[in-house]
Amino acid sequence: MHEEIQNWLGEKIKISGVLACGVRFPDRKTYTRNQSAQFEPVALENACRCLADTFQVIHSNHFAVEHLRWIFGGYFVYGSMRDDGACFSFITRREDSPLKTDAVNHLLEEFKKLQA
Q1: Residue 65: which domain range?
Q2: pLDDT (tens digit per residue) in 30-61
Q3: Which of 26, 59, 61, 98 could cross-link to 17 by cystine, CB 3.0-4.6 Å?
Q4: Domain holding 23: CATH number?
């Protein structure tokens, strides 16, 4: 089941502008990919957990949120949670990123439609 997600992440990390990405499942299994040693797997797993926890709090308070964007220094962290509780996140540069708004939205929507 998670093999499809791992393959999908392997494809998405190749997109120009995606510096790191990950998916966290409700069973707490987390898969990450990165373009740089700057984004260590442990830190990425922690970021995925924090994002998933944030979505849980938002949804438990009945806010209708589909996507989130956090700003950390010179980076954006984008995230989306599917109805099955799987949470996708990815990191881009805040300045001069080749990944534009339409591409960001497409990536988030593609995750929501992924069968895994």
Answers
A1: 1-113
A2: 999 999 888 888 999 999 999 999 998 998 89
A3: 98
A4: 3.30.450.30
